[in-house]
Records
---
Amino acid sequence: MSTVSTRAPARADGPAGTRPPARRRRARRREQRWPAYVFLTPWMLGAAVLTLVPMAVSLYLSFTDYNLFDPPRWVGLRNYQEMLTEDPRFWRSVGTTLLYVVIAVPLKLLLALGAAMLLKNLGRGRAFYRSAFYAPSLLGASMTIALVWRALFNDGGSVVDILGSVGIDTGGWVGSPDLAVYVIVLLTVWQFGAPMVIFLAGLQQISPELYEAAALDGAGRWRQFVSVTVPMLSPVVFFNLVLEMIQSFQVFTPAFAVSGGEGGPADSTLFYTLYLYERGFTASHMGYAAAMAWLLLVVIGIITLILFRTSRSWVFYADEEGR
Amino acid sequence: MPEPRSGRRRPLSRRAVLAAAAVGLSTALTASLSACSSSGDVSSGGVTLTFSWWGNDDRAARTKKAVELFEKEHPGVTVRTSNADFGSYMQKLATQAAGGGIPDVAQLDYRQISQYAGGGALLPLGDALADGTIRTSEMDEEFVRTGLYEGEQYALPMGRGITGYAYDSAVYEKAGIPTPRPDWTWEEWARANRRITDLGLESPDGRTVVGANDNGVNEDIFEDWLRSRGGKLYRSQTELGFTEDDLTEFWTFCDKLRDEGVVAEAEDTSQANTTELSPMGRGLAAADFTWDAPFPGYTALLGDQVHFAPVPTADGRQGAYFKPSMLLGVGAGSEHPKEAAALVDFLLNDERAGDVLGFTRSTPPNRGIAARVARTLEGAEKEIYEYAQRMEKYGLDAPPPAPPRGDVAIQTAFKRAYHRVMYDLASPRAAAREFIDEAERELRS
């Protein structure tokens, strides 16, 4: 906005004082906004046609029984009610997803922070290691990697064989209801590169003066970490936490690949999104699937809101120092 | 944006972090249900038909060749073909049906008939059958009825499949078990499993070779078991044909054999998605229940000592039946229903098409063509052809009408529910109760 007011006089037309100043300013602003909207049109069209309309349709479908063949039939809250009160698999999928989020997100963030701390002080080779650690984040979302992962942890897979040769006989993880979910947890944690790069950027933002001052006061490395790094980095931690949490709730590809699309064995990898997909595309209950999608949206929204609210007590923003 | 003050790095502002997080939230959430596909139909003079199927490369090559023959016979008709693997084909066809148009001619799964016919996606074929555009005189009448929905013919079977039992005859001989006959019983089968396990043969990974795969996951085999006792899977389009007690008995039987260690372990059963990964394919078990069409895959993998035998019975009554492995239907929105019907007839009844297509969709339903093609078969393919003839001679009950709409979901639910038994997460009765609840919910909706 400041750019608008500084440039405004140069484009002023008509003698001053013919119109009240406030009205003139408003008129000018209107005049100068339309090019912005013109340039935004492609994006807004895309957002409307590809995002808002499908979302509205999906909200409507969530109140219907729709099998792709017959026209949607209005059932009110029936889908939501069935989901919450009659469907044991829905709750199993919620349990599996929560277990996964609670384990995978902290592990991934800790690993990312640890790696970022190590890389921060690395002189030569930092660019190489940064790229090397980041690579899995680029590859990890692909179906291929998930299939490789499945092979590694299957009966006769390398990981299982190596563990077996050192006396840890686990059997195939993929076939075990207790272990299968950890195959997916490990695949997620392995992709710690993306939050790591953000942590690294955050670490580099912390002024060296703060560390110097802390060192002069006799703070050791641990003290410096706790009293300087952690508070200064807390906005970045918060950012990564929110992002990873949202992504983890929506994990799909690895669960689909590792379980062969069925969420097995015995529903142990039946993530929420996988169950949603199964309801919609295998069982042709699009209304039910849409209801699940909307419930997920609401729940993620609520959890994000809670994170934002609690963040006030633990996230430190440097620009709030004076307040 | 203001310049950072001299020397000091700009600390992250609250607003920047909040904005970034908000962007992250919104982009992450836009990943939602969306699948679209549409195909424009361009015909340039004459008639253009579309025809789609699922299946492997061999089937694709043979089908395209048969289509070329059809085009030569019908000048002015062009057929545009498309094919995919089973999973994506099912989804694509469902989306096309929702968008108002499946191809003029489409290969369909038995489980789709009720849904597609009931949903108005298929053209009734009564007229084409009445005026002889599509001929069924060379086909088994009962078998043709598998394409009925509410008394109307919506599709015609393209191939005829039957369940059976792939077993390693060398192991069976060593254990002194006679060759399984069409009237062998489930008790004999259980005893065979015990004797094979008692041999103590070592599998490639060092464990003892067991009698067979655990067939508790296999709804097709449960259906054979039910039929052999006079029951059926579905009473109607909205009702199951069996009770909690029936299923509990079946699963208890399977569960007990696995507990005894004479059929495959839970971990091996849950990984058995392909022939290669099945306990028999991995050398862990001496036998497996399977359909006839995939059987040649077992001999290719394990050798010629593997043979195809009948599914056990309760007391001589065979539960296996001839099932359409796939059907052909005409899209309700087809602009050229006459030509589409002609293509259906050509693929089913023309001798030259029959020669080209061979057994790529298991036994052709046209008896004349099946016998003609059978003369050229050898090895495992010949064995499944002879098996089918033997079973026909032995006598099988009529196949059930097309399964209800929810059948796809019910079949996966069956497998999943038994997984809970396998891993001791539920008793056979509790799992049966849960499965029946789910199946009934599926049939109601």
---
Amino acid sequence: MKKFIKNRLESTVPLYMIVLIGSVWLLSLLSSCDSFTETSMPVTEMNENAVFEDPATATAALTNVYAQVRDAGLLTGKSTGMSKMMGLYSDELSFWGASNDDSDKYYKNTLVPTTGMLREWWNATYTQIYAVNSVLEGLQGSDALEQELKHQLMGEAKVLRAFLHFNLIQIYGAVPYITTTDYTVNSKVKRVAEAEVMDHIIAELEEASDLLNIAYPSEERVRINRYVAQALLARVYLYNGNWGEASNSASAVLNATDTYSSSTTLASTFLKESTATIWQFSPRTATRNTDEGATFIFNSGPPPQVALSESLVLAFEAGDLRKENWIKAVTDGTSTWYHANKYKKVGNSTPQQEYSIVLRLSEQYLIRSEARAQQGELIGAKEDLNVVRLLAGLPSTTAQSKAEILSALIQERRVELFTEYGHRFFDLKRNGLLDAVLSTTKASWNTTDAFLPLPQEELLLNSNLLPQNPGY
Amino acid sequence: MQKNLLFRGRTGYMPFSLLQLLLLFWLSISSAQSVPVSGTVFDAQGTLPGVNVKLKNKTLGTTTDANGTFQIIASPEDTLVFSSIGYVTITTKVGQQTTLKIIMQSDKTTLEEVFVNAGYYKVKDKERTGSIAKITAKEIETQPVTNFLATMQGRMAGVNITQNTGVAGGGFNIQIRGINSLRNEGNAPLYVIDGVPYASDPIGSGSSASIMPALTSPLNNINPADIESIEILKDADATAIYGSRGANGVVLVSTKKGKKGATRYSAKFSQGYAQVGHYMKMLNTQQYVAMRKEAFANDGITEYPESAYDVNGTWDANRYTDWQRELLGGTAKITNINASVSGGSERTQFLLSTNYGSETTVFPGDFGYKKANLHFNTNHESEDGKFRMSLTGSYTVQDNNQPSTDLSIEAWILPPNAPALYDEAGNLNWENNTFENPLRNLNGLSIAETHDLIVNGILSYALLPTLELKSNMGFTDLSHYESSTYPSTIYNPAYGVGSDSSLNFYTNTARQSWIIEPQLHWKPTTGTLKTDVLLGSTFQSQNNRLQGMMASGFTSNSMIYNPVAATTLRVTAFDESEYHYQSVFGRVNLNWEDRYIVNLTGRRDGSSRFGPGKQFAYFGAVGAAWLFSNENGLKDQSVLSFGKLRASYGTTGSDQIGNYQFLNTYTPATTQYQGTVGLQPTRLYNADFGWETNKKMEVAIELGLLKDRIFLTTAWYKNRSSNQLVGVPLPGTTGFATLQANLDATVENKGLEVTLRTENIRTTDFSWTTSFNFSSATNTLKSFPNLEGSTFANKYIVGQPLNIIKVFHATGVDPETGIYTFEDVNGDGIITAPEDQQFVKDLNPSYFGGLQNQLRYKNWQLDFSFQFVKQEQLSIPEAFGLPGAVSNQDVSVLDHWQQPGDKTPKQIYTTGANGVAEAAFYNYTASDAVIKDASYIRLKNVSLRFEFPKSWFGKVGCRASLEGQNLLTFTKFKGMDPEQIGVGQLPPLRVITAGLQFNF
């Protein structure tokens, strides 16, 4: 019996298998169930169209640009940002770190097109601009969002785009003005003359000002409202020599007294609740303070990275409360060094105390003062200047003539706005004072250092950006 | 047991010559009494296991064990027959002998019956139509290395392998026949382990593997000791069956399998050390201080700045430390233990092996790399031989513990008079905040733990004698944890940084894949035509999950590995991706009279990495061979023992671009604003890209002379890659660095490969075999429409290789100013990039190869292997640190300009205050003056083995070995190692180990 079954199996199984299993096998071999190569949408990503159909995700796409600007590129408070770097580049800071650090090249004004930081600034800024453009295009194509939200977000995006370009032209001179996400256009862009970029910036800020509300769109002063647009307009008009517009824009902000008022003490100017703040960045986490704190503060000497330059420390008038409140001495017994002490917290604290402030009221007074002086409104100019001086515990200015007031303003801006986003360098530049001031204190200062070089790789990748800035 | 006792004390092993043996036969007096006879069988490479030993005309028989020994009961009249596949059968009369030494000669040619693995099929080496290079366990075992890619260096024609870093657990770069893709990451070959594709895409992330120059490669999981052979498929004939993944070659790894016979045990223990083999010649204190002082004087600075601690008296101007030896001069201890058991019956065989290895570090401190591994294999076939199955697997655990920062750069640039590392109390010395102590970096760790399982099963059933149904199934499961920590103790305490600023970046990666490949094999023979047909299909799926975290702000540094103790925890990266792959493939091989062979292969591939409409493509190749030595006119002569002409042509492809690249999406950002996680654009959107295609052509001739004692293979190939699937680099103004797109550019690789194997001497006591390989290759960008207007305009040149660098042309030092001068190409009076950066340097090796020798004298065996490369590379010591600034320098800066009229190779010293000199220096580092000959000849590997005579340990075979890697390098290159490209990595180390192996 057993043998019979075995025989049966031996004779039938091969046939059975060939016919049945073999054919199934072949079917599976040749079957074009090509759907196997389709995979589902990745859990880590979200379709672009969907992002701008939901108010929450559309807002998140925009607020991420604030985070990018806070964390990288020109405006970050980190040691790679403009506040430190342009401080070194001008006469605000001295450098104590290693000579192979890019910071040393900024300090010595020996930047070359291959200096890594230049490309980091350039790429980070244009990545931020791309993100803004992507948001603007997404908003324009969206039907699902309410008009009011759309306007708010578009206004914020336009201010960011204008502000980023504004800083770029201060650093690099003529730069491309990018308003699309289309890489076929953006990869071959040409540099646009500074004046033309300025026109774009002004138009963009004016437009944004119309789109935005006077109320901040969210808690705190960490997003852009209409006053932010106007405060920036004031600055841009001033840089552009449009005195009347500069004065008017600054007035628009200064007249909003129910929102903004000068701090009562210098110690509270840089606290996050300060009513003199127009715009500040919300820190990375709920317990974190500014990046500027870690960038400038040190506890013992010699300074590991940067200290305030001697000339800046000496620039404070006797009795200037800013010298007590905003800078701090560190000594090792024989030598003394100073660091910026506007922000006093390093790292985390509970509760948070300080946010990085981008725009504050004092600058608006100084802008209007300068604009008024330029227009011959000397009394008004002095009034505005004295608001800032008074707060610093100083007597009214002794300047009388237009020239004296303008000169007093340069000094006042120096001690008021030091280590804030490169103000000093920009002020010297727009007043044509770079050579006069910096060649006395900086050994290797050259006239051509007024503009930083464009990053080498960028010129290699897009020859339409040639020529390089002179001197490099 | 009884037998063993009997043998002990009898004549042990004696080195007989054949003559003596014959003499013994002659003198032997016959006796009818049966006695135990024992002996050892050898071949040219050493003892030979698995040889059938039989008594002529009797049924009694045995096989030799793992050490090549046998015992059998025989009478003096008996004749012993020794036979084994691939060897000439030997018969010998027993006579009065009780101990025999038998030397087996390989039969006719070395090629006979040698099979090579071609992936989906095996082919007799002499009948193959494709280009396949191979190394076996014999070559792998002599090398004290932990990564299997290292075992191939210098041993395979057309395969260029370089080591990234000397830090244990680091990776290698491999290029098979040059660079095909414009994308750096698109040039990896396909790895297949026992039939299972193994994703070599890097794991982890850069932030958590801070000490490594590249992301972690999973290939470290493969244990060299488990490998039976590595085959590399190079041409279209061999690779087209892998279709879209064959463009860059295929690396097939076959692990060791169980073999029938008595149970064999083997244990190997080896120990040794590794060191940096060569240091750069840097300035001593006297020279350095003189340089600095001269630089200040040149810059007109008479009062040394407060921060110039090295010369202003803050630091001892006479103190000298050789920082390279201080920071990199340690000795890493290497231990390796291996044990295996194998055996089996006619129908079922098994193998179980385990391995443990460890390597400490050359950096100061207690760091190390450990690897443990378990490998198994079982094979079974049914009584009728129709059904067969095989299960193979290995599980590997790696544990790597290294400092978070490679100290190499600090070892080069630290001033030689920098202060002591420790103060008198034994704490890190910060020299009153004037010294960034390099050992601060050792307080941070870069650790990695990897677990990897690879299992493969094969089931097959012979439906008919000529028709086999087969399925290959496999899965891989990899998990990886890595972490780089930056505790507050890596900073000078003066910064006042507390543990609330300590950081830990860690990444978890998990990757699983499965594959099913049903296949049909049909091998009919009609007359003199042998046909071999294969039809199969592939379904493969791979999942990847990666999570990167940053934990910061710890209560205490001792809690740095506990994310719960962090005040801030941030997800820095999260990726979950799915890759599906589906194909149908086939092969038809026609062999007429073992003279004319045609091989056709093809594949239709589909990949989920492409958008709708772009997912499928066809690939195929034709290969042909003519075995002219089998032609009647050539068959019966003694000089030419083998002759074959072969050629192939076909297409392969590449889909190495990452998943989901065709989608237009936003991704959550890793940062927050106002407590809300932002959304950011994922990439520049382009859904319209498809496969990259690679057309390969090869012609080769294989010649065996004098019974194949001289065997020469010469191959010429030409590969063209087009439709380049490229991350087109974009200017920063686009917002992104790259765009995924097909670029209508063509890259050509062509070259000549020669391998020569000779058996120089082959006698019973002494044999000497030599293998030589040579590869010469050129890489050319053949076409690139609109290159001028593209983003590659300044990176590539049509007609030049891809791996070029455009540099300034240095014209020396101006004798009047002492400043470097360069050719002003556009004549505008100033040196600017890119206008004047127009000189082209090719960084590809122009040729490379290796020479291996194996010598055996009685019980001694010596292997040594050379590797050579002809190339130009960046001369690292001349390209960092401004001479005169706070950075130690290569001694070549001593020959510098000092006063007008000096004619010197190096320019004036400056601290950086001389902007013109500094700018000239940076131009110099981007000029042809620093691209120098980095050719080298290296004694890559030496292995000396001694087989102890049998009598010493009774039944236990014992072998002692001494092995060395990277022993000697002959080069003009001034950096630490010419193999190393890039700055700041520990070079490959010199390794020497001693080992003992027991077999019983």
